[in-house]
TrEMBL record:
GO terms for cellular component: cytosol; protein-containing complex. Belongs to the lyase 1 family. Adenylosuccinate lyase subfamily. Homotetramer. Residues from neighboring subunits contribute catalytic and substrate-binding residues to each active site. This is Adenylosuccinate lyase. It comes from Anser brachyrhynchus (Pink-footed goose). InterPro entries: AdenyloSucc_lyase_C (IPR019468), Fumarate_lyase_CS (IPR020557), Fumarate_lyase_fam (IPR000362), Fumarate_lyase_N (IPR022761), L-Aspartase-like (IPR008948), Pur_lyase (IPR004769). One of its GO terms (molecular function) is identical protein binding.
Length: 493
């Protein structure tokens, strides 16, 4: 049917093309193809079939009457999925797993009798989710490493470029552009460690049966506990896991989802902080994100250069951070061995968390590869604030030249307040140093003023901290990802 007449009446719109249906912008607009595939229907149901194959192979190796011909038939049809038939079966049966059992059996008539033998729905559902979580983390880790690598190059390049520090977003002592970047990198390195830990801690659900007791498999193997344990081990190994959870209900503990999404939410917080800093620096005109030649900042104000990439990261990072509430609540309301109120929620939150993390990392990589620094603007802001910061150095220089500390302090207090009045009440530049130069009291140190006001003398050990941090903490953390650093990333939107 066409668009609802007059947008009223409440009839459903049933256009045949993709543009007539809602599509999540996480996939249609932003996410990378690899991550989108990991959470795709084709990958999901293809993994189900592989899990049924692993189970049959393991059961056969342990003595169940399964033939080579049945195994070969399953192997030949792993990706021969009739999605239309599966949808029709699910509509009829109201059960997605049994719909795909029937669909697989339709193209594997010889193996039909042994597909899903002894298993429950969570054998394919939960084990597939764990495989997908692992694969998703394996995609995110090199992406994050690339971002860290690009920012490390930036930090090294600007390790000794002084810039005004801010606390409470008020002018504070100087730092360097590179040292500030290391604050971002340190947070991301923590995220890298957390993602690695979350991946390495993942286990397989394995073959546990309807309530986790493995009763169905114990019956299949006529009470042979060792064969049931070996079946669990074999299937776990075939799926690429080193261990399975020793204890489960019908599902693996939903605390696992909390562990995974909590590190993604934490990554979201890091990215939000970094991109907020970049947005604030863009307002100060000190640093800007990449801006394309034909890019339009505003439809009404053609002069604008809005930090849209950083704004996108902040927007999506907020979504990522909120998603942790879903697994927290799901885990808390699972009754006994399992309730199904986890299913629909998990279909949404797990995929969205990974797709969102994928998007913000690819966008942040693009930002970090094209950051533009304006040293003259940075220096001008330093010159506006540095005179007040240099007052203690001036006092010490005067005392060394024979002056009285208290007299000097009072002189500086008066001159600094006069200069502050010019800045705040008249909108002028900070003329504190000009006033010091004009006051004969400070004549003993007039020749020292330039050196006393050298910004590099106010940055402490910032350059040394950058060098040590990059050498001892950052670069070693990136070693496992050296082969996956790749080239620059281009955003289509």
């Amino acid at each position: 049917t066409s668009w609802r007449e007059g947008r009223g009446g409440g009839e459903a719109v049933t256009g045949g093309d993709a543009l007539s249906r809602y599509r999540s912008p996480l996939v249609s607009r932003y996410a990378g193809a690899e991550m989108a595939f990991v959470f795709s229907e084709r990958n999901k149901f293809g993994t189900w079939r592989r899990l049924w194959l692993f189970l049959a192979q393991a059961e056969k190796s342990l003595g169940l009457p399964i033939t080579d011909e049945q195994i070969q038939e399953m192997e030949a049809n792993l990706d021969n999925i009739d999605f239309k038939m599966a949808a029709e079966e699910e509509k009829r049966l109201r059960h997605d797993v049994m719909a795909h059992v029937h669909t697989f059996a339709h193209c594997c008539p010889k193996a039909a009798a042994i597909i899903h033998l002894g298993a429950t729905s969570c054998y394919v559902g939960d084990n597939t989710d764990l495989i997908v979580l692992r694969d998703g983390l394996n995609l995110l880790l090199p992406q994050l490493a690339r971002v860290i690598s690009r920012l490390a190059e930036f930090a090294e390049k600007y390790a000794d470029l002084p810039t005004l520090g801010f606390t409470h977003y008020q002018p504070a002592q100087l730092t360097t552009v590179g040292k500030r970047c290391c604050l971002w990198i340190q947070d991301l390195c923590m995220d890298l460690q957390n993602l690695e830990r979350a991946r390495d801690n993942l286990r397989f659900r394995g073959v546990k049966g309807t309530t986790g007791t493995q009763a169905s498999f114990l019956q299949l193997f006529e009470g042979d506990h060792s064969k049931v344990e070996e079946l669990d081990r074999l299937v776990t190994e075939k799926a690429g896991f080193k261990r399975s959870y020793m204890v489960t209900g019908q599902t693996y503990s939903r605390k696992v989802d909390i562990e995974v999404l909590s590190v993604l939410a934490s990554l979201g917080a890091s990215v939000h902080k970094i991109c907020t800093d970049i947005r604030l620096l863009a307002n100060l005109k000190e640093i800007e994100e990449p801006f394309e030649k034909d890019q339009i900042g505003s439809s009404a104000m053609p002069y604008k250069r809005n930090p849209m990439r950083s704004e996108r990261c902040c927007s999506l990072a907020r979504h990522l951070m909120t998603l942790i509430m879903d697994p927290l609540q799901t885990a808390s309301v699972q009754w006994f061995e399992r309730t199904l109120d986890d299913s629909a929620n998990r279909r949404v939150c797990l995929a969205e968390a990974f797709l969102t993390a994928d998007i913000i990392l690819s966008t942040l990589q693009n930002i970090s590869e094209g950051l533009v620094v304006y040293p003259k603007v940075i220096d001008r802001r330093i010159r506006q604030e540095l005179p007040f910061m240099a007052t203690e150095n001036i006092i010490m220089a005067m005392v060394k030249a024979g002056g009285n500390r208290q007299d000097c302090h009072e002189k500086i207090r008066v001159l600094s307040q006069q200069a502050a009045a010019v800045v705040k009440q008249e909108g002028g530049d900070n003329d504190f140093i000009a006033r010091v130069r004009a006051d004969p009291y400070f004549s003993p140190i007039h020749k020292q003023l330039d050196s006393l006001l050298d910004p590099s003398s106010f940055i402490g050990r910032a350059p040394q901290q950058v060098a040590k941090f990059l050498k001892e903490e950052v670069r070693p953390a990136l070693i496992p990802y050296q082969s996956k650093m790749g080239g620059k990333i281009e955003l289509t939107l």
